[in-house]
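Exam revision sheet. Question 4 asks you to relate a sequence to its structure. Input first:
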Amino acid sequence: MSKAHVLIVDDEELNLEILLEYFEGESGFTLETAGDGEDAWELLQDESKSFDLILLDRMMPRLDGIGLLRRMTGTPRLAVIPVILQTAAGSAAQIREGMEAGAYYYLTKPYRRDALLAIAHSALTDASARKNLYQQLNEHISALQFLDQADFVIRTVDEATRLAAFIAQACPKPQATVMGLSELLVNSVEHGNLGVTYAEKSQLKLNDGWREEIDRRIALPENSSKKVVLNFRREGATVVLRITDEGQGFPWQDYLDINPERACDPNGRGIALARMLSFTTMHYEGCGNVAVATLVPDGASV
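Answer key, structure tokens:
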């Protein structure tokens, strides 16, 4: 496998040295540094360079982290690069501002080496999954716009991502929808039907054992008949997606918004991001085993 090309952006020379030291011994990375946002922007403008991950300081002279993120989102080639925003700012509003600008991963200073590496690996894995989803999305036919109502049944994580790519084509803003829908479907499989807790997933992500554990649980006899049902319904211009699993539910109210205490975990941001970026509205029903999302095209009435 090729190494991940990482751009580290920080105006403090000592911080750059520490971060370079943190990556020592990690064979899967090649590193490049920039002293502030303007220097980083110059590197990113060079189309001969291809970065897989950016570790970005928030507070810098000339051009800060948020400013660089906003420039990147206006360039399709750069907007897809996962960005870890490192900052001393830890309020919910500040984290939300960073995520809206495009930083879906956070590290709050000071942080440990293992936390940095866990987030870096998680960001690269998620980016690979997003790329695969977009490729699948482009393979499906536009005739799905004529789909009016249907039920779909899945059991596995792979089926969840394939179904998300398929159904997103029948929805407004397919590229935004596919990520949120994939998140809800995968959550229904792993947390709902298979009973993987938040703490368990965090540890599995840190140990790179998540997929192995998911496959093990799916193979258990008690899970062999469990399914997730996606109901698709079109109501005029509005699409309603209803996802039901067979789990015991969860305290969903705690996950609808960005929680600063969980911002640096390798998991736990998906539901909030889906609600914020993928759907017009989103909520859970009952004990939390039913997720309901709506999508309304721009300019249409809700």
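Marking note for examiners. The chain has two domains: 4-111, 136-295.
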